[in-house]
Structures are given as C-alpha cells and as structure tokens.
Write a structure and sequence with these properties.
By secondary structure, the chain is mainly β. About 5% of the residues lie in helices and about 50% in strands. About 40% of the residues are buried.
Length: about 900
C-alpha cells in the first residue's frame, strides 16, 4: 500500500492506495509540492509498496494535486500586486478558455468554432478595420461588417454595432429606382435585450414605418433571416474606351529537367466571333525558354495564320493547330532544362473594322511539349489578344453550390436620347457570359433558365421590356419617357447547376453611344444564391437574431452602415434572499458570477457550490452601495480570468479562485478587522520599502463614455492631501507626474471617477510596503486580509513571544503573564493574535500597556474578559481537549504597521512570500 498525506494549513488528510508499480504521472497532476520518502517526487517515479508521500497544498489552491481529489481543470491560483501597491489577482485558465459557447454551423453560412461565426461566402468577407463592429463594437463610428470571431458576450449596458450574420444585399424593382435592403445579424446570446435602434446617430423611430422593418427573435428556434445570398458589389460603368489597349499572352511554367537535342510544342488556338469573309491574317510568336550549356536561351518561331488554315467548329468559332519545332542536333548542343513556353500575338488580332465590331477573340487552348525523354500536355485557355479599344469588363466569382445568379444593372442617369429638344426612347445592351473556373465563357442563356426577381425576392418570367439574344440582354427606356431621366434598375437572373462560376459583364452596345444619348449602364451588383442552409439552425435557441429590411428612397439609399442599438444583458442578480431574479444589471459581482457559472457563455462553467456565496453577496452589496458599475462587450476570444480581473479591479475587488474550495471575492475597503500578526516569532526576511519622493500625482483616464458612446477622458490631480479634478491654481500638467491609462469594461463616468480617486489616493497615502516570508503551514490568511506587521527595524524595544497566562479579576481582564522577564518601556503597546475556536477565526487586539520596567507581567486597563486570549494549557477545542501553546504577542514602542496583504507568492521550499502595504 502507498500512504499519502495531504497537508494544508496544519490540517492533514491521510489515505492509502494500492498503487504498487504505478508511474507517478498517472495519479499526480503537479510535482512541485509532492515529496516521496522525504525527497521531491518525479513524474517518472514508479511507486512501490511502503512509499510515504506528502502533498503540501497551498492555501486557496484547488485540491487538484492528486487524482483522488477533485480536479476542476479551470483555475490556477496566483495573486499578484500591481503598480503602486494596488491589488489584483492574476487568473490563468488552462486550455485557453474563451468567453464563448460551443455552437457549430454548416456550409458557407454562419460557422462557429467555440462560438465563432461568419457570413456567407467567407472569401469576400470584410476584414476587421478601424472602427468596425469587431474592433470597436461600442464606438459611435463603428460599422457593420462580416465577423469571423466569437458571438459577442455582452454584460451590463453597451451600444453595440453588430456583425452581419450573412452578407447584406438589395432587392430591386425592374424599371424603377426602388430597392429594398436586406440585413441579418446573429447579434448576441439570448440573454440580451435591445432598445434605441439607430442608423448612425439617428433613431429608427424617426424614419417612417413604411420604409423600415426590424424583426427580432430572442432565443427562437425559427430562422428569421433571408435567402442564402452572397453579393458582389461592382458599380462600374459598362462603357467603351477607344484608347484602351489589350495585349495578352499565354505562358506555361515547366521547370523540367531534360536531356534532349529536340523540342516540339503541338498547340491549338481557338478564334470566336469570326466573320470568315473578313478575316485578316494573324501573326503570333512561340517562345521557349530553355537552358543550354548552363545558360538560359530563348528559342522562338513565328506563325502567320490565314483563313484557309482554320477549321470551322460552328457558331462562328474556328480552331487552328500547328507545331513549333526546335532541333539542335546539327549544333551538338543539348537542352538540359525546359523553363517556360509562351505564345503571344505580334500584330493586332482584330485587323479590320468588322473584327473590332464583332469583338473577335483569340484563345490559346492547349499544348503538348515533347523532348527526347519528356512529354506533357497542358490545358491553358488563356486569351492571346492584341487590339486597341476596349469595353469595360466586370468579373465576379461565385461560392460553391451556386444555383441562381442575379445580375443587377443600374442606370444612374436614366436612359433616353434627345432629338432636338425632345426625349426619345432608346435601348442599352449588356453582354453577360459565364463559365466554370476551368471552362470557357458561354452566353448566359446557354443551359439556363431565365427569370427576373422583384424587391421581395419573388421570381417571374422575363417581361417584354427586356430582350434577350444569346449573350446580350437589352434594356429599354421606361414607357413613360417623362421619367426616363430618373435612376432605375434592370435585372436579369439565370439558373445554373449547383457549382462554382465566374460571371463576365460587358457593354454590348457600341453603335448607340453618341454624345446626344443619356444613360450609360452600370454593372451594379451580382448576387449568387446557394443551395445550402444559411446557418445551422441548431444554434438558434442560444442566440438572438435581428432581421432588418429597409425600402430605399432619397433619404435612405445604398447599403446601410452603422446600424446599432443599446444592448443590455439579463443575468441573475441578488434580490436580498437569493440569486433567482433575472434582470438587467451592471453590478460587477453579479456579472462575474454569471461569467463563471453560465453555460451560455462559459464552455466550462463552475458549479454553484464552488462559489463563496457570502463573499459574492458582500461584493454585490458593496457595488450597489458605492455605485460601481461594469459594462462591456467582448467580440474576440479572450480568457475569462483576464476579463474578470479587470471588472473586479475597477470596483476595488479581487477574486481568489478556489480559496478553501470556493471562488471568493474580497474587497479593498476600510471595513476590515485585523486577522493576522506577523513578527519575528512567525516570519522572517523582513524588507521594508517606503515609497519616498515623487510618485504618480495625476491620472488621465481614457474610456468609452456611455453618455454619447464616444471615446472620452478625464484627469484627476493630487494636491493639498486630496484628489481634485483640476490642477492647483498656478500649476499645469507639467507640474505633476501624470500617467495615462486606458480602462475597459467601465462606461459609467461616475463609477470610473470613484475608482481612479481610490487608486490615486492609494498611491499617495499608502506608501509603506513590506515583504517577508512565512511557513506555508503557518499561513492562514488570504489576499486583502488586514494584518499587523512589526519587526526590529521599525519598532523600538521589541519583544515577541507567547502569552503564558491571563490575569483576571471579577470577570475583567487586567493583564498577561509572559514566559520571562522583559524590559517594558514607557508608553508601550502590546498586540496579541488569538484564535476564536467558536467562530473559527483569528482575533487581533492592540492594548496600551500601563506598567513599565523589568517584569514578566504586562498590565492593561481592565476590560471585560471574553475568553479569546487563553494562554497556554489544556483547552476545549472544537471536538475535544488539547494543549494550546499560547497566544502570539509583540510588545514595544512606536510603529506597529496596520497593513493589507496585496500579494502571496508561493515558493518551492514550502514557504510563501507575502507583500503588504498600509491599510
């Protein structure tokens, strides 16, 4: 059997385990405080019968060192004082826990890794930028964008600019300037409620209800979003530039080693939009870059193509096949590497007006290269055109599984022409073609079904006002020529088999473009609809949805930016009896309790029995009394401990994870009673560090103000022994040691002013700092406990020791007997640490000593005797009688420092280093 002794604060727990020949790492999580037969335990040690193992637990540490105790897997304790003696607790979380819930989505809709989500078609997502919803979700200038982070966690009250749950898009009305905007947000978890919806700084209520509709679903399983659409904004004029130049070439990279005296390239060209009776001869050059004798060399051959060499493929399409051959046999040279091949025009490929009008196009389809020891075939499909005068060309690539493609054309200036002083109807023609990524462009009518779609997303057949012919679609002026100068939309849609496509939109109308005609078409937007869910609807009961629709008009047009609102989280709050009331709250203690225990936002929630309820209630009431508030939103993965630490610090609070098995909040206030005494009898290594000279005397606090939801700042100054909101008369900022600090998770100015006042006062008035060591088994204090600190460096005529007996008379305590004669100075004080076993707590008292001279008796002014100071001997404990060594005392003159513990650092030698400052 293996005997295991677990010790903590002098208490022991003994168990026996049959772990013979087991490796230590199977049963022990940590080895820094484990000892086997008096020596440090190593992870690789094999246990054997008769081993004696001691496990020394640190106060406040989770009972996680060995497997037979509970392993929480969440918190490691580590309390650290930061800057100028202030208090905090640094909390480390194992495994990188973030404030998220594990939800998962499918397809190209919302996806989640530990709560993350993104819009449809991630390749086109808007990245995080300055003042975006993800980088500054509370600022007035933030814009809605596509988020790839976690679902935001809101606590308190904030202004939120939400991320899109899918890409926003518009629906248009053919032949009018009307459109409808569709926006959908997965905004928060379902405990958040909303108010004060705004577009920018303007409340939604100021807009007509005929134009805007907001639909909300809080924790509903019903999807309230829109079609699975990815939009591609283009907004480019479909015009013709006679000065534009096109010069394309096809290049193939091989980088292939070979040993050959010959090289042959068999290639195929394709020409489309050919009028064979008006063919002009084309000239091309094939160039092969090779390595010969260690030097790069270009081998080239020219080709002139006549009409008689073309092979008719139908539909005005012709192919041309030929071979470029290079033979180095006669030169006794050898090609050792084939680097690239290139095929390019060396004269215009549109050699006359007919070819320019028809937009003759040349394509390098494929090639096969052959050497003496290598052959390879490549499908290229690159343009090889050279000509002057170009139409604008707009390209858009769809996501996978696209089934519907909607092309939206806009006419910002209307569409008409003028004959004299009269308007006349005219047409505008647009060319639309599509292909798969590795295919060739075909007219959008090939293998598709055509439709138009109205503002509400409903499909219908193509109306007479739109004429379709092959790849061309022609839009006509409105029937009422009087409104032909107004902006209007034309749209055409076509279905395709589910897949990935590239759409090309160009001007198909050259002849009617004169300076007397008004109305150039624009490729406004291409919308791809996908055959898959927008998101995994299983997440919907956990989150809030917002569906936003707005009909555009002169005061509201285009894609709306900066949609925002006030978001408030509803969490359990203390109602005076329990935490069963759910309501909106900015109380820091309630927020921290929720962050720790809620399965909604914490993937590893802490059980409620790990929460020290009394300390959380005290912290809650403290925050209510002092009006401390916490408000914030976290839109990126961040460790829970860091957020909790910041929230509590801004309210004079600190949490100690699993102190005696429970998460405990402590308050840095003036309502503490002393619970510890440290002197030469129970500690050593005293270092006294008084802060002297000039320290921080002004703090400039930067924060987001919840009055206007903009970045704000204020400065507090220390002068004449107090904090002021302005420099002393006759001084400027230059006269102060001023520091600038940014504050998160606090938006209420009054709350922050109170905290910064406390911090500045602490810096200026709590100038004595102590550091000393204690044995772990003698340490029964925690962070922010009040204690007395004395040592020979700062106390005259000091004596320490144990009280042997108490002297009483008629129920009154008159003095104490100590173990030996000591010199008692005039005006001495005695400080005594006793133990109250009824209430299980230490008790510290300070008494004025009324006698002096050499004596073993210390007298005080009589007070009622409460039996707390016992002296040594047999006493009644919690269970039975046992021997008590006596109460700890320090006797002396002058300074006994009244302190608060700001840091406890645990050492590997079973000691702790304590840091304390003035209380």
């Amino acid at each position: 059997m293996i005997r295991i002794v677990k010790k903590c604060l002098g208490k022991s727990e003994v168990v026996a385990k049959k772990w013979d020949f087991h490796p230590a790492f199977l049963h022990f999580k940590s080895f820094t405080n484990c000892y086997i037969n008096g020596k440090p335990l190593k992870w690789y040690h094999f246990l054997k019968n008769g081993d004696h193992i001691e496990v020394i637990e640190r106060p406040g540490e989770p009972t996680s060192t060995i497997a037979l105790f509970t392993w929480l897997g969440a918190w490691l304790v580590g309390a650290t004082g930061i800057g100028f003696g202030l208090t905090t607790t640094q909390l480390a979380i194992l495994g990188g826990i973030a404030l998220v819930g594990a939800v998962t989505a499918v397809g190209t809709g919302i996806y989640a890794l530990a709560g993350g989500f993104s819009g449809v078609g991630n390749a086109g997502a808007t990245g995080s930028k300055e003042y975006s919803s993800t980088t500054n979700p509370e600022l007035k200038g933030a814009s809605n964008d596509i988020g790839k982070g976690i679902i935001p966690v809101v606590f308190g009250r904030v202004q939120q600019t939400p991320c899109y749950g899918q890409f926003p898009y518009i629906g248009v009305d053919n032949g009018t300037g009307s459109n409808k905007l569709y926006q959908y947000f997965i905004a928060n978890y379902n405990n958040v409620v909303y108010s004060d919806f705004k577009l920018g700084d303007t409340f939604i209520s100021d807009y007509s209800i005929d134009y805007i509709n907001i639909n909300q679903a809080i924790g509903s399983a019903n999807f309230i979003g829109f079609d699975n659409v990815k939009k591609v904004d283009i907004n480019e004029e479909l015009s013709y530039n006679p000065d534009g130049q096109v010069n394309n070439s096809a290049i193939v990279y091989y980088n292939q080693s070979t040993t050959s005296a010959t090289l042959k390239i068999d290639f195929q060209l394709q020409f489309t939009n050919v009028d064979i009776n008006n063919w002009s001869q084309k000239q091309f050059q094939q160039v092969s870059t090779v390595v010969i004798a260690g030097v790069q060399v270009q081998l080239s051959q020219n080709f002139t193509i006549a009409a008689s060499q073309l092979v008719n493929q139908g539909s005005n399409t012709y192919t041309y096949n030929n071979t470029a051959s290079y033979d180095l046999t006669s030169t006794s040279q050898t090609i050792t590497e084939l680097i690239t091949t290139q095929f390019a025009p060396i004269s215009p490929t549109r050699g006359n007006a007919v070819e320019s009008t028809n937009e003759l196009s040349a394509l390098y389809v494929s090639e096969t290269v052959t050497t003496d020891d290598y052959t390879d075939t490549q499908t290229v499909n690159d343009s090889i055109n050279q000509y002057g005068g170009t139409p604008s060309e707009c390209l858009a690539t769809s996501p996978d599984n696209t089934t519907d493609i909607d092309v939206i054309i806009s006419f910002p200036q209307g569409l008409y022409k003028i004959n004299g002083s009269n308007r006349q109807s005219r047409n505008a023609t647009v060319e639309i073609m599509y292909k798969t990524p590795n295919g060739q462009y075909v007219p959008f009518t090939q293998g598709t079904t055509l439709y138009i779609r109205d503002m509400d997303g409903n499909k219908s057949s193509v109306p007479p006002s739109i004429t379709v012919n092959g790849s061309n679609v022609t839009f006509k002026s409105p029937s009422n020529i009087g409104v032909a100068d107004q902006m209007f939309y034309g749209m055409i849609g076509f279905t395709v088999p589910a897949g990935k496509y590239i759409v090309r939109i160009r001007s198909g109308d050259y002849a009617e473009k004169t300076n007397m005609e008004i109305g150039v078409p624009y490729a406004n937007q291409v919308q791809f609809r996908m055959d898959e869910p927008v998101l995994n609807e299983a997440i919907l009961p956990k989150v809030n949805q917002i569906g936003f629709e707005a009909i555009a008009y002169k005061g509201l047009s285009g894609t709306l930016q900066k949609f925002n609102y006030i978001a408030e989280a509803k969490i359990p709050i203390w109602n005076g009896t329990d935490w069963n009331t759910i309501d909106k709250s900015s109380n820091p203690a309630a927020i921290v309790r929720w962050l720790l225990t809620s399965r909604l936002v914490n993937p590893r929630p802490e059980p409620l029995n790990y929460i020290d309820n009394d300390s959380f209630v005290a912290a809650y009431e403290w925050c209510e009394q002092e009006q401390y508030k916490a408000d914030g939103i976290e839109s990126g993965e961040k460790k829970t401990g860091a957020i909790i630490d910041t929230i509590l610090r801004n309210a004079q609070l600190t949490m100690i994870p699993l102190w005696n098995g429970k998460h405990t909040i402590v308050i840095d206030n003036q309502d503490k009673v002393p619970v510890g005494l440290f002197n030469q009898h129970n500690s050593w290594g005293f270092v006294w560090t008084p802060l002297t000279g000039k320290v921080t005397s002004a703090i400039r606090a930067n924060f987001v103000n919840n009055d206007e939801w903009v970045e704000d700042e204020f400065t507090l100054y220390w002068w004449d022994g107090a904090v002021h909101d302005a420099p002393k008369e006759g001084t400027t900022d230059e006269d102060y040691l001023l520091v600038k600090e940014d504050y998160d998770y606090v938006r209420d100015k009054a709350s922050l002013v109170k905290y910064v006042t406390y911090k500045l006062t602490t810096i200026q008035t709590k100038r004595n700092n102590f550091e000393f060591k204690v044995n772990l088994e003698g340490l029964n204090l925690k962070l922010l406990d009040r204690c007395y600190v004395t040592n020979t460096a700062n106390m005259q005529n000091e004596v320490t020791g144990l009280i042997h007996d108490v002297v009483t008379e008629n129920g009154m305590l008159k003095g104490f007997k100590i173990g030996s004669l000591v010199d008692i100075p005039e005006n001495a004080k005695i400080i005594i640490r006793s133990l109250d076993y009824t209430n299980e707590r230490p008790v510290i008292n300070v008494y004025d000593v009324i006698n002096s001279g050499r004596s073993s008796f210390i007298g005080i002014n009589p007070i009622p005797y409460d039996c707390i100071v016992k002296g040594m001997g047999e006493i009644q404990g919690l269970k039975d009688k046992w021997f008590y060594d006596g109460d700890l005392f320090t006797l002396g003159q002058q300074t006994i420092y009244d302190c608060v513990i700001t840091d406890i650092r645990y050492n590997q030698d079973l000691t702790a280093t304590i840091t304390a400052r003035d209380f």
